[in-house]
């Protein structure tokens, strides 16, 4: 039981590090002392964000595809688990891919097709492993990363386009697109 607690604590701390020390995070660590954090909001958190209807449409399309794939699978999930899965999808695939190719409209159709492949393969993997999985959202996030990286190895031109877009904007290239 103690080992499980230690593992859970380690996983939580890694997640917290990703959230707090991420480049686009709206929360910054003001001070850290023995696992306790003093946090502050960045200036970006207080700025009004403009709506991007194309991104909203892209995200809705991906969520509809994901929901359809999950409904047709044998995976049993709660509403909260679905939200976790959708959030993982948004963070790992939708947002990074959209902003990398938003300027290149010709690449958008390729991105949509590749994203549908990634989601399909990831849901099939989730379905295959569903008996062994305790936390669907976390497993789906891990699966998304692996399949995104694997599929983009085959789609070299798209991977190069995404990576160069990140480099041009002086952003850190996510691991799955390197």
TrEMBL record:
Identification of the protein by name: Uncharacterized protein
């Amino acid at each position: 039981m103690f080992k499980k607690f230690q593992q859970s604590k380690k996983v939580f701390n890694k997640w917290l590090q990703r959230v707090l020390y991420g480049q686009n995070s709206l929360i910054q660590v003001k001070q850290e002392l023995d696992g306790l954090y003093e946090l502050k909001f960045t200036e970006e958190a207080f700025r009004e964000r403009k709506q991007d209807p194309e991104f909203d449409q892209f995200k809705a399309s991906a969520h509809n595809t994901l929901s359809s794939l999950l409904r047709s699978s044998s995976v049993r999930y709660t509403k909260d688990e679905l939200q976790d899965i959708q959030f993982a999808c948004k963070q790992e695939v939708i947002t990074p891919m959209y902003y990398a190719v938003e300027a290149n409209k010709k690449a958008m159709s390729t991105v949509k097709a590749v994203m549908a492949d990634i989601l399909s393969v990831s849901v099939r993997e989730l379905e295959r492993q569903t008996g062994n999985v305790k936390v669907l959202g976390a497993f789906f996030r891990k699966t998304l990363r692996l399949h995104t990286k694997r599929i983009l190895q085959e789609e070299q031109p798209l991977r190069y386009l995404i990576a160069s877009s990140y480099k041009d904007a002086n952003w850190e290239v996510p691991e799955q697109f390197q």
